[in-house]
Amino acid sequence: MKMTNNRRKSKVALLSLSIMTALSLQVYAEEEPYQLSEVVVTATRTPQEIKETPASVEVITRSDIETMGADSVVAALKLAMNLNLSEAGMTGNQVSLRGMNTNQSLILIDGRRMAGEDTGTTANAYELNRININNVERIEIVRGPVSSLYGSDALGGVINIIMRKPEKQQTTIGLSSGSKQQNAAFRFDLGKEGKWAWAVDTLFTDVKEKTRSDSTNMYGPRQFYNISGTYDLAEGKNLDVFYERMSEHLKSDFEDASRDFYTNTRNSYGVSYRGINSRGNYELRAYNNQLEKNNDTLLAAGTYSDFDRARYKTRVIDGKNTMQLDNNHLFTFGGEYRSSEYRGTRLEDNGDHDSTVIEHGISKPISEKTIDYQAAYIQDEWRVSDKLLVIPSLRYDDSNKFEDNISPKIGFTYKFQDNYRLKANFGKGFKAPSISELYMKMTHRPIPAMTVIVIGNPDLKPEKSTTYEVSLEGEKGNNFSKLTYFHNDVTDLIGTTTTRVGMVYTSKYVNINKARIEGIELEAGRHLNDKFTLKTAYTYLDAKDLVARERLDSRAKNRYSVQLQYDDPKDTGISGILWHEWVRDYRYVGADYSYNTLNLTVNKKWNDKYNTYFGVDNILDKKIDELVVEGRLWRIGMNITI
Helix, strand, or coil here: 68? Predict the structure, then answer.
C-alpha cells in the first residue's frame, strides 16, 4: 500500500535523524582506535575474512588483474566463478551471476550505485566497459541475493569494484594493445601534502572495429578521468572527495551501409566523512552521478532517419554505523535516500515537463520521470561460540512509485574442524521496476516500412526471489576445495507481450514470468609447491522458465575449467595463468552450443618498477558467430613506475 506524502516525509525525516544521531554519538565516543579485521567488505558492509563470512564471496586483487594482463574490467572477471559475461546476441556484455538475468546483478563502484540504462536488455550491458581498469584496486563479488543490505537489483548478487586510494608520491604509465582495444594509462600519486593526499588517474582507450555477421561492434575512443583526495580531519577521522568522468564517441556500421553514432558522457562526484573509534566505525556520504546519451542513425543516402536522447541521474545520501556491542555482537545499521531521474525521448510525452526536441530535421517529444527511494537496514554479526557465527540482516525499502518491501537474510558459518566449515544462507531479494519499465512510450522505425512501439506499465510489481544455499569448504595441507548448492525461486519477472498489426509491433511491459534457478558450484585445487597452483572449477546450472516450461536463454548448463597458475614473487619474477574452459549446452535462441577455449597470460617483472605482460585468449581459434565467440584474441602491454 502506497503511503501518503506526510507519512513518507516522516519516514525520510526519521531515517535522516537516525543516521545523523548515530554519527554524532560516535564523534563524542572514546578516541582509542578500534581495529577491525580486513579482507572483504561487500558481503556484510564490514571488513571480514572470507573464511568467516557465510556468503559466497570471491575477490580479484590488483595483483590478479596484473597477472591476467587485463585491459578492461570484463577481462579481469574472466575467471570469476559462475559469472556469465558473454556477448551473445547484443553489443556489450551480459553480467549474469548464478544464471540470473543481467539486470538482476548490482554493480557498484566503491559501494556506490551508478546512473545507467534501465531496461531488461540494456541494464548493466555496458557498465563494466565504462570503468577505468587502471584505477581498480580490487573487485569483490558476492553471489546470491544481498537485498537485505543493498536493496533493489541485488537478486543475483553484487559486484563491487573498489578503486585505488592515494598512495606515496609516484607516477605510473601503462601502455597496451590487443585485438579488442589499445590503451594509454597515466596515474599521478601526488603524495601527502599537509593533511591532504591526492591522486589523478587517466585512461585513453581506442576500441577497435570488429565485423560481425550483419554489423560491427561499437568502436571508437573512450576516455576516463579520475581525481580522488583524502583529508585527515583528526586521528581516525577522514574526509574523502572524488570526481570521475567517462566519455565515449562510438559508432557501429550495418550491412545496409547505415551507421549509428553514440556520444555518451558520465560525470560522478561526491564526498564522504568516515571515522573509527573504540566502539567501531561510521560513515556518512553524499554523491551524484549523471549519464547523458546521444544516439543518431545515419542512412546510406546521407540523411538521418532517427535519433535518441537520454539523461539518467542518481543522487544519494547514505550512512552506516558499525558498533562492537560486546565480545559476541558486531552490530551494523544504516540508511539511504536515493533519487533516480530519467529524461529522454523514449518517454515521449508520457512523463513530466514534456517538450519537443528537434535534431536533423526530425521532431520528437521528450519528458522526464523521477523515483525517490528510502531505506533502512540492520545487521548483527553474532558469534555464538568459537565454532558458530550467525549473521541475520533485514532491510526496509520504500518508494513513491510502488509498494514498500522488506528483505530478510540469515547466514551462518559453522567450523566443525579447524580447517573445515559448513556455511548456509537463506534470503529474499527484489528488483524494483525501472523508470523505463514503468513509463516508457517509445516509437522506433528501424526501417522505413516497420514501426516498433514499446509501452511502459505503471502497475508493475517488483520482481522477487527466495534463495537458499549450503556449502562445505575446507583446506588440508596444500589442498583446498568448496562445494555449494544453491536454489532460487523468482516470481513476477518483468517481460513484454507483443502484438502485431501489419508492420506495426507493439510491446508492453508486464509481470508474466516465474523462474527456478538451481545449481552446483565446485572449486578444488592444490598448491603443487611455493610457485605452482593447480585449480579446477565446475558449475552446473538448471535455469527454467516455469511459465513456458523451457530452459532460460543465454545460459550454459555446464561450465568446467582447469587452471595452472605460476607466481614468483621476486622483483624479477614471472607470473602467469594457463587455463582451459569447456562450455556445454549453452542455450541461445532455442539451440544448444558447446565449445572450449585454451587461454594464456604471462606477466614478467623486470624490477620493482617495470613489468610487461602478454596474453592470448582462445588459442585454438574457436569461432561461433551466434555467440560472438570471435576466435583468437591477443593483448600485450607494459607498466612503469617513476
Answer: helix
Q: Within a 10 A sphere around the Cβ of 268, how many other Cβ atoms? A: 20
The β-bridge partners of 490 are 465, 515
- Please name the residue that has the C-alpha cell 547505415: 258
Q: To 10 degrees, the CA torsion angle through 540, 544, 550, 556?
A: -30
Bridge partner residues of 473 (DSSP): 421, 482
pLDDT tens-digit readout, 585-642:
999 988 999 999 999 999 999 998 999 999 999 999 999 988 889 899 999 999 999 9
Give the containing element (helix H, strand E) for 18.
helix 5-27
User: Residue 532 pairs with which residues in a beta bridge?
Assistant: 566
| 118 contact partners, CB below 8 Å, separation of at least 6 | 103, 312, 342, 434, 435, 436, 437
What is the SS3 string spanning 92-155?
A: CCCCEECCCCHHHEEEEECCECCCCCCCCCCCCCCHHHHCCHHHEEEEEEEECCCHHHHCCCCC
Is pTM, for the whole model, over 0.85?
yes
CA–CA distances in Å: residue 563 to residues 229, 262, 313, 583: 39, 38, 42, 15
User: 496 CB contacts (<8 Å, ≥6 apart)?
Assistant: 454, 507, 508, 509, 510
Asked if 242 and 268 count as a contact pair (C-beta separation under 8 A), the reply is: yes
Distances in whole angstroms, Cα of residue 212 to Cα of each of 171, 233, 622: 39, 55, 15
Q: Under DSSP, is residue 11 helix (H, G, I), strand (E, B) or coil?
A: helix
Cα(247)–Cα(264) distance, integer angstroms:
6
- Cell, residue 48: 571480514
pLDDT in tens, 32-44: 333 333 467 888 8
Return all residues near 288 (Cβ < 8 A) that are at least 6 apart.
268, 269, 270, 313, 314, 315, 316
DSSP characters over 313-371: EEEEEEEEEEEEEETTEEEEEEEEEEEEEEEEGGGTTSSEEEEEEEETTEEEEEEEEEE
Return the SS3 of 26: helix
Nearest to 203 by CA among 162, 146, 248: 248
Distance (Å, whole) CA 29 – CA 375 = 26
Residue 580 near residue 588, CB atoms below 8 Å: no
